[in-house]
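discrete fold record:
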Amino acid sequence: MSKKIPMRQCVGCGEMKSKKELLRIIRTTEDEILLDRTGKKNGRGAYICPNGECFRKAVKAKGFERSLKMAIPKEVVENLEKEMEKIAAG
């Protein structure tokens, strides 16, 4: 029997992908918005493809705000985008 692969939906493009392919952004109990590199931190999570296009789509369509159930300040969005660019660059 093969092991089930956990699937998640990207809040940018809406595609279902395996959890490993996506980046997780969480809202902690203190209402901080963080990039969760491990995928193991506690908090409400939203998943996104590791590319700028999906990130911009998610911001424009308020995908993060819907998934995390809160408004996200502009500077937090900018910080997340910078962190994602670092990851994408390797």
